[in-house]
Amino acid sequence: MEFTQDLTSQIPTSNETNTHSTEPSPEQFHLSLQAATGHPSPRTLRFLASIYGQQVTILVDSGSSHNIIQPHIASFLHLPIHNLSSFLVMVGNGDHLQCTGLCVDIPLMVDNHLFTTSLYVLPIQGADVVLGVQWLQTFGPFVFNFSVPSMQFYHNNSLITITGSKPNNLKPVSFHQLTRMLHTNAIATFHSVSMIPTHPSTNPPNSHTTPSSDTHLLSTFHPDIQQILLPYSHIFKKPSGLPPSRPHDHHIHLEPTAPPINIKPYRYPHYQKEAMSTLITEMLQDGIIQPSNSPYSSSALLVKKKDGTWHFCVDYRALNTITIKDCFPIPTIDELLDELHGASYFSKIDLRSGYHQI
């Protein structure tokens, strides 16, 4: 598909043509989101060019009003920067970037064709140089072919065709290249990718994948610890619902002659009402509690945790008075400590919602 781009509505008047001597007002200067972030768009064309023999990445963007160069590229190429009165440039997403300089009459070599243009210094990402309407309007009508992509226009009575670069595949980078990019501020964003070993043969058939937040935490452990925890990652997921029924379910044995315990609900502050309703709704949805007409009733209250969240508590002290206690000898602490003699590794398990997981 081809079309001819008409920029006559954006061509400045004769008083505005000389961009070297006048500074654009914030209303005239605008920058598309693609130009600010370097993301691909049907309205942009990316290709390689050179400035003073150094290769740079060019992004032609009809959604941006002026020509732009990244500050670290201008510094690396030792381009003279003329100071301007600081002004803000609005980006397509509503953010603002500060412009303080202008590089005048910069020679730009594209496929053995020389162009001279001025570039405003803005902290953008992605492409090294963005050529906007300020550059496109100097050619008059031009043809943009999105299927290639490419653009055609007349310059010095010659028909010039610029073909866009295809996206490059990811390539490994050496430590020397990475160091050079860091020193020249050529890295827009830096991401670290960690590989976590998996052992499908040891995973339970009904195991679930580890949540992303837990995966990040798991990657900080020793590889041997990861091999132990990863097959049982489903155990560490947030509990949902009650545990399955087992041969020895927990029972509360009450005194046969004791009357039902029915405690009047506690009064709680009004600011806790929303938190109380939210916690009750979540437990109903998870199947932890259910509506009941039982003659037994105990009061509930909220206790604030150290992290600022609320802990839902039920006061069962009255119920405990009529509960038949289990006779189980609790070992002494000294005996338990003696059994740890010679051990080098210790582990503990903290249940997220202990009473719901018994």
From TrEMBL:
Reverse transcriptase domain span: 303-358
Molecular functions (GO terms): aspartic-type endopeptidase activity
Protein name: Reverse transcriptase domain-containing protein
Bias (Polar residues) ranges: 1-25
One BP term from GO: proteolysis
Coiled-coil region list: none
Organism: Trifolium medium
Positions of region (Disordered): 1-28
Gene3D superfamilies, alphabetized: 3.30.70.270, Acid Proteases (2.40.70.10), HIV Type 1 Reverse Transcriptase, subunit A, domain 1 (3.10.10.10)
Pfam families per UniProt: RVP_2, RVT_1
Highest taxon in the source lineage: Eukaryota
